[in-house]
């Protein structure tokens, strides 16, 4: 029972740290956020922060990793078929995640996210390699298929970047529809 209480407290403190960081990120530049800012907003003591993270860069790395894992969890639930509604639902999920995740939204808007995007692109290439490893032979080589998936991923990130730069003014449904059209017109014909 004692371990369950400690685990719950650890989780609650971690969530408070994340929530505080996200709120501060709306007010301050990423490189201006301090441990003092986070502990004050989270309502925790300094030692609690340091029980979780060594410093702000370690917190940022943990949030990057969680964001990437969340994105890949979304991607792995998607099995493309020539089903417009399923594609649109997938892209709407991605758009909603990008709009509601303050860390991702901030990185999409600012060039400071270079390290994050490098890590994300590396993970995407691993995903593409895993995805294409078991594809059945078609008129395209695995290398062509891999590049085409990378193209689709890159264009999706580009659209999300533009949308974030415009402060998410267009409705998520509109962006999801554009991404769906691009996928159905470009990627699906290539895959068949």
Give a quick set of tags describing it.
192 residues, mainly alpha, Arc Repressor Mutant, subunit A, Tetracycline Repressor, domain 2, 2 domains, elongated
Question: Tell me, what is the CATH class of the largest domain?
Answer: Mainly Alpha
Strand content: under 5%
Give the count of helical stretches.
9
CATH structural architecture of the largest domain: Orthogonal Bundle
What gyration radius follows from the Cα positions, in whole Å?
Answer: 19 Å
Distance between the termini: 55 Å
Describe the structure.
- The protein is an all-alpha fold and about 190 residues long.
- It has two domains: about 1-55, Arc Repressor Mutant, subunit A (Orthogonal Bundle), CATH 1.10.10; about 55-190, Tetracycline Repressor, domain 2 (Orthogonal Bundle), CATH 1.10.357.
- Helix content is about 80%, strand content about 0%.
- It is built from nine helices and no strands.
- The longest helix has 24 residues, at about 1-25.
- It is elongated.
- The relative contact order is 0.10.
- The mean pLDDT is about 80.
Summarize the SSE layout with pairings:
Elements: H1 2-25, H2 35-42, H3 46-52, H4 56-76, H5 84-100, H6 102-109, H7 114-133, H8 142-165, H9 172-191
Short description:
This protein has helices spanning 2-25, 35-42, 46-52, 56-76, 84-100, 102-109, 114-133, 142-165, 172-191. It has 192 residues and is mainly alpha-helical. α1 (2-25) crosses α2 (35-42) and α8 runs antiparallel to α9 (172-191).
